[in-house]
Amino acid sequence: MIRLSVDLMGADAGVAELLKGLYLFHKRRLECTFLLFGTRAALSSELKRYPLPKHLFEVVYAQDYVNSDAEVFRTLKSGIDTTMARALHSVVSGQAQGVISAGNTGVYLALSRFILKTLEGVFRPAIISQIPTCRGESVMLDLGGNLDNSSKVLVQYALMGKIFCQKVLGVESPSIGLLNVGTELQKGTDALKEAYDMLKHQKGLNFYGYVEGNDISKGTVDVVVTDGFTGNVALKTGEGTMRMMSFMLNRVFRSSFSARCAGWIAKPFLQDLKAYFDPRVYNGALWLGVRGVAVKSHGGTDSIGFSHALETAYDMVRINIVQEIQNTLLQQISTSE
Amino acid sequence: MIRLSVDLMGADAGVAELLKGLYLFHKRRLECTFLLFGTRAALSSELKRYPLPKHLFEVVYAQDYVNSDAEVFRTLKSGIDTTMARALHSVVSGQAQGVISAGNTGVYLALSRFILKTLEGVFRPAIISQIPTCRGESVMLDLGGNLDNSSKVLVQYALMGKIFCQKVLGVESPSIGLLNVGTELQKGTDALKEAYDMLKHQKGLNFYGYVEGNDISKGTVDVVVTDGFTGNVALKTGEGTMRMMSFMLNRVFRSSFSARCAGWIAKPFLQDLKAYFDPRVYNGALWLGVRGVAVKSHGGTDSIGFSHALETAYDMVRINIVQEIQNTLLQQISTSE
User: Fold this and answer.
1) Of 3.90.1150.10, 3.40.50.2020, 3.40.718.10, 1.10.1200.10, which CATH number belongs to A1-121+289-320?
2) What's the complex ipTM?
3) Does the beta-carbon distance from A241 to B241 stay under 8 Å?
4) Residue B164, class by beta-carbon neighbours within 10 Å (0-12 exposed, 13-18 middle, 19+ buried)?
5) Which residues in chain B belong to E strands, given as ranges?
6) Quick check: B268 and A262 CB within 8 A?
7) Which chain B residue shows the shortest CA-CA distance from A278?
8) CATH 3.40.718.10 fits B1-122+289-337, yes or no
9) Tens of pLDDT along A11-29?
10) How buried is residue A25: exposed, middle or buried, by Cβ count under 10 Å (0-12/13-18/19+)?
């Protein structure tokens, strides 16, 4: 039986919306149990609105929570009795197998590294997520975990991304692409060129080579490897572009009476499309490389989005992603020694 | 009367397609004259297919042209008699006021700096282009001119981007955003933090602060300032996402008989949308900061796209963007002294 620790505080969406999402997820996964973390003031009254069965849900109140503008350093020093830190500790103590939060990203990443610790051999944990493409789905990392990444870090991202893609998307030998400003060998930074050379000679890796920004949604490769700064901007640019096109679609079909009629007829098909690109479906990014399943939900998501992030955490525990990554890295270390 | 030098070689699209685009543009701008650069083998036979009036078009044959896989260093040393270099030289000698090429981007940028030279006070030239947003259009720079940019370079990009936005989009006091992985002050690289502080204290600049990837298409600011690596990836990611959504729209409306019917009814409205997002309309990026109008067209564009890039070059000459940028930078230098 899987038990998830859920930090319900610090999200723009608010406690009520997250609880609603939790309830949606609970209805789909009746076998999953939960530890809920909140402050008494925020949580106790909201909880009464949901018929959560007592044997599946346990509530833990903390004194404080991590604010959206909290600073990493200060929280590391004095944030022990926050909902986020206590939720992470519950994974270390074995009370839960995975943790999820929609709170402050920077603090969550720092606390995860500090409390869960990184896996043996991991240089830097990365944020990974599935993304929609023309060919189905790909995965991309790092999406903002670390801003400054050297070639050896990028190479490790490729390895971790491969395992994630195999286990989550079921691709046997995922193709790996290194995100660059062009596909020619002379393009890019020195770190990228070094990483390219290392990946080219890596045994057992289906390395495609460089890919460009437009290759992400084309689905040219199964795993897009990049540094945290570029990955974060690319992810958000893609999401923003999808939102812009949805916005313009709505506007076009409201521009006149005949447009409204056409829009009404086209609606069921447009809704199919909307569902495919719904960013809520892709909500839930994993901190890859720490000793535990730690999933980050968008802070501004709604209940449906949060339920998907819970689904991600549940899946990651189910496929035992942490152990899979650890085994691969240890194997890697022993063969290179 | 404006005269443009057009390098017709080295593009994936091929000479015939570019000539077709040139002819489209000529039909719109009958007063513009041209210097066409090509190799005799590629150009002479193609030229016969187009009824280009002799008093408007002059053809210059070069021995060679810059290949798509040509190396920057080698071309700088031995690429004097290429169509690209000769087209650039024609601007220096005053035979033409602007140059356009759809050839090798890296070589074009390097040759532009080498032949045209940079404007006084410019640290590094940047690639700038208009981009579609929910609110209309914004501009973004650098889109791949330089990969490694310090804070003082980013600050100068903001200044140059402001002038471009004023002159091209007619925005009196354009808002400037610095692309980052979050909007909080502690986020980002040291160069970004330094640039933020410098821009905050810059007089006469409408500095908005940090923006994220999703702000680009939201149109949060008029000018998005970023380094060449991030800008290149963001631009291509946005374009790729638009292409993916068009592809999926087509697929949805072909999925069944009823979908085809609905698609047929919705077609005129979807075409309005398609026209708005057509990347060909945004084709034509400017090298900002060199002593002359040098416009880069996508190598893989078609005739319509190439005609838009010619339009960009024509507009840049008409509004005298080079002198505007130079005046602003000299003013900047004299006030800071």
Assistant:
1) 3.40.718.10
2) 0.90
3) yes
4) buried
5) 3-7, 33-38, 57-61, 98-101, 126-133, 136-141, 175-179, 206-211, 223-225, 285-288, 293-296
6) yes
7) B245
8) yes
9) 888 999 999 999 999 999 9
10) buried
